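Dear support,

We are seeing what looks like truncated structure output for some complexes. This example has two components. We would appreciate it if you could run it in full and send us the complete token output so we can diff it against ours.
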Amino acid sequence: MTGGLTPSQTVGPFLAIGLPWPDGPFVVDEGTPGAITITGRLFDGAGDPVPDGLIETWQADPAGRFDHPDDPRGAPAGGTGFRGFGRCPTGPDGSYRIVTLRPGALPSPDGTTEAPHLDVSVFARGLLDRVVTRIYFGDEAAANAADPVLASIAGERRRATVIAAPDPAAGGSFRFDIHLQGDHETVFFDV
Amino acid sequence: MTTHPPSPPTAFRLPSYPRAEGVHPPLDSPGYRSTRLRAPHQPLVLIQPRLTEITGPLLGAGRVAPADADLTTQHAGEPLGERIIVTGRVLDSDGRPVPDTLLEIWQANAAGRYHHAVDQHPAPIDPNFTGVGRCVTDAEGRYRFVTIKPGAYPWGNHPNAWRPAHIHFSMFGRAFTQRLVTQMYFPEDPLFAYDPIYNSIPDPKARERLISRFSMDLTEPDWALAYEWDIVLRGTGPTPFEPQDGAR
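Here is the complete output from our reference environment:
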């Protein structure tokens, strides 16, 4: 089924011309009740920040629903009214910031339950294809322990790379750095 | 805070979105120097697409104004260069059109210069050209842009490195698995043989799928030449459980 597929190419150094949107980082408006903030930095294998990358997020709404016809549960009546998609270019220090709502847990075809998570695409000069990771939440220990995708990652140390740390000083704030290479290399998925 | 997941109504099977084996460039492609510190070293962890992957943002009309598809009318004057039409269809690998999906493009101007502070190529900026376009596919998956043919430009990858002329294309499809950002090239570019980005795609036949076709039929007489380019995203593969026709 791969006949005829269009291959990927890098976004190159000038993605900032075409991809950022003014409202991209705001999956919901800042100040929305229940809004959370996910911030972090994108690093290369030398530990230097990647200033010309783009982070995209996709997720369920707080009830674990998608406003999408391919969800076998169907879309909620009247839609969810939730964009579910975030996009933020990285700054000179490699930083990004997404304002969103905490996603709900999801049923999985194998009968397990997926812990709340966001899917993440990372684009940058030097990446010939996007790389995909997930953001889980550090304050969902029980749900994370039962998650089938986390279970497929060998080793606690690698699993920890896809779990965002709650900021003890600021409720509703989470930290999620992404390391493309190196000792702290983030787990990337082939989906 | 975790809500109980609603149960699906019936047997719970999802589209499989078979993988694109051997199509995309390896992330570690030494000829393209920027991959050295950015390509992950650990093997990717294989996961079956689940609900988050078989859904995706359905971004359509609200994101795009009709004028966004014409890159030659975004300023007071007309940009310099060869006016072209770039058109084609977005399909999936099962042959189905992908309707109502957002395309975003960006490119250099006719002189090979990007409208970006980091681009220091000593070629002129065109005050009448930003190089950004957006459109949404129609019911048959068709898209159409009017723009200026971009120029080739030098870059720092190796001595006397030049990129073949290209337009960056970003596609969402209808599922997270289908997300694709790539580059469209122009026929018979003499720089193909020297470009490590184009040649990072291992299969020469797959590479050639990034090259648009000149189409005399689609030109507009006395006004613009035309290039046709179809984009094929991952399909859902064999329908897993129930026929899905009519599901849309």
